[in-house]
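Hi R.,

Here's the chain you asked about this morning:
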Amino acid sequence: MTLRSEAGRGWIAAASGLLLLAGLSAPARAAPMAFECDVPPSHYSELTQAASTPAPIVTGRILVEELRKSDDESPGAGIALTAADGKRQAVLRLIAPALDKKVLRGQLYLNDGQKKQTIELGLVSGVAAITIRLSLSDTGKIDLQLGELRSSQPFIPLPAARITAWCATGEFAFRDLDFAGR
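And here is the predicted structure, written out as tokens:
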């Protein structure tokens, strides 16, 4: 749309003003975050935020800094989408079965409130940053990426979900973490 004024150049100021107003009224998108998750053996830490939409998308990278020995818990990190009541959940998990970041196990844990299942995704290397993407459609379809591993699974919608980045028994760095919506 072009606006013109009698003065000839007034349309530039008017158009600039409209663009400025349009920019001010648009919802602001949060900048990607970094989350340094560093916990001792058998401990857990998390960063949680309410999803801004019923169709959340989480993207970023996980760096495995240090894996710690624990008698009761394997080191791990991931992303969880949890219903507001806490009873339904989809969790992308990166688990270190041994204290070797060269071989990590990718899993998708699903709990629809009635049935719990763990889907083995495969092995990934934790030597370099691992790309992550977890999305939930408004119809309940889960799409995920963990490094080169990809999967799509039927699930259920999670209105008013919480998004959580977490780690346990080690030091993990989340980079370019973006909790967005469609």
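One quick note: The CA atoms of residues 96 and 104 lie 5 Å apart.

Cheers,
M.
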